[in-house]
Structure formats: structure tokens, C-alpha cells
Structure to design on (226 residues):
């Protein structure tokens, strides 16, 4: 199938927000007597707050999870500014190239809508996207494919007509479970963790591109999956 829609993950893919998120998690969890280690943070990439907090807290109820999640996200948004958050190398060029070629673009993120909207505003990239689909809309985060399937529905595209750009194993797995092709970016592109998902063709094909600056043009990227 021809790729008609590109679904962008936000955190780590469009922008390297990890340091800001980690600072927000550390400050929040410290208030509850938890030393939130960096490896725990890394292992949680692509998952939603409810899933993370359910593992870290001692049998929390839904109200506690919701309250702490709101606290953490407010802490994160207070750190997001045009000075602290900028698109990763190659992202703006690819966003522009895809728009020029008439490809629909959507953000598909496990993060809360308020966060994703704040990030889009800080980077001034809202005009590139048809919609923002986030964890606010759906109860399960990646690797559940629901977010990406919702993106396809919003775009009016079949799953096989969608390409996902992701930086987490959870996101790549979600794309394959949705029968969508994917591009793994950043450190994941050369990681052993990508190997179980890596294939060059067919439904759910996935390739690694460490730096989107290396993409010559949008058409050449999409042609790899056409």
C-alpha cells in the first residue's frame, strides 16, 4: 500500500523531552518517599502514568493515581518553554517535506493532551498536524495499538497506509500490533532491542534511522514502504 498518513510519537521522537520528564518524575515521586531511578524512567518509555504509578506505589487506588499523575504533569509543563524544548535534528525538514507531498500527519502519544499541546505550542509546529491523539483519549498506553488505530481512524486511513515514527520499543511493538510500518529513531535504531521487530517489507515492516537528518527527502523515506 501507499503510505498516506504518518503518525509521529512526540516524546523522544519529535523532541528530546526526557530530561524534563525525569526532573518532573523525580520531584513528584520524592514527595511520596520514592527514589525514582533513571533506569526505571527509561524502562517506562511509551507507557502511560497509570501503569507506571500502579507499579511504583503500594496498591494505590484510582484517585491516588489520578492525583499524583496530575501533579507530575503539572511539574513537567512548568519546565516546557521554547528555550528548553526544540525539535530534534531532521524533524522540521521531514515535517515540511511530508506536508509538501500531501501526506497527512498526526501525533500519536501516550502522554496527556495538555502536555502534548504545550510541547506543540512551545515548538510552534501545530500547523503540520491534522490532530493530536493522546493517552487522554484512551485507557491503555503503548504497546497496546489503540492509540495508533485511533490515529488511522481520525485520518481516514487503513492501518497499512500508515507509517509510525517512534523512539521506543513499546511504540514499535504497538505499530506492529496495529499492522503499521514503522521507523525507529534515535538510540533505538541501532539497539539490539529493535531486532525482534525489524523487517524490511510487508505489513508491520520496521527499519531503523538513527538521525532523521539523514533522510534525503520525504518521498524517499515513504518509498521504502511502498
Amino acid at each position: 500500500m501507499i503510505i498516506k498518513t504518518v503518525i509521529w510519537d512526540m516524546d523522544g521522537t519529535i523532541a528530546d523531552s526526557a530530561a524534563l520528564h525525569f526532573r518532573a518524575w523525580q520531584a513528584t515521586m520524592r514527595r511520596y518517599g520514592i527514589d525514582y531511578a533513571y533506569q526505571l524512567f527509561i524502562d517506562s518509555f511509551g507507557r502511560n502514568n497509570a501503569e507506571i504509578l500502579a507499579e511504583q506505589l503500594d496498591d494505590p487506588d484510582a484517585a491516588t493515581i489520578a492525583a499524583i499523575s496530575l501533579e507530575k504533569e503539572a511539574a513537567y509543563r512548568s519546565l516546557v518553554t521554547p528555550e528548553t524544548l526544540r525539535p530534534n535534528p531532521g524533524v522540521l525538514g521531514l515535517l515540511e517535506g511530508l506536508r509538501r507531498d500531501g501526506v497527512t500527519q498526526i501525533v500519536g502519544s501516550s502522554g496527556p493532551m495538555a502536555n502534548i499541546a504545550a510541547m506543540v505550542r512551545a515548538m510552534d509546529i501545530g500547523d503540520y498536524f491534522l490532530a493530536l491523539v493522546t493517552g487522554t483519549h484512551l485507557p491503555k498506553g503503548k504497546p497496546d495499538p489503540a492509540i495508533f488505530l485511533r490515529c488511522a481512524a481520525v485520518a481516514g486511513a487503513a492501518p497499512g497506509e500508515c507509517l509510525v515514527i517512534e523512539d521506543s520499543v513499546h511504540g514499535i511493538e504497538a505499530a506492529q500490533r496495529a499492522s503499521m510500518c514503522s521507523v525507529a529513531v534515535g538510540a533505538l535504531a541501532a539497539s539490539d532491542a529493535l531486532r525482534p521487530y525489524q523487517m524490511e517489507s510487508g505489513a508491520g515492516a520496521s527499519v531503523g534511522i538513527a538521525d532523521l537528518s539523514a533522510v534525503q527527502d520525504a518521498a524517499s523515506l515513504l518509498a521504502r514502504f511502498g
Notes: The chain has two domains: 5-15+86-223, 18-77. The beta strands are 5-8, 104-108, 131-133, 162-166, 181-185, 206-209. The first strand starts at residue 5 and ends at 8. The mean pLDDT is 92.
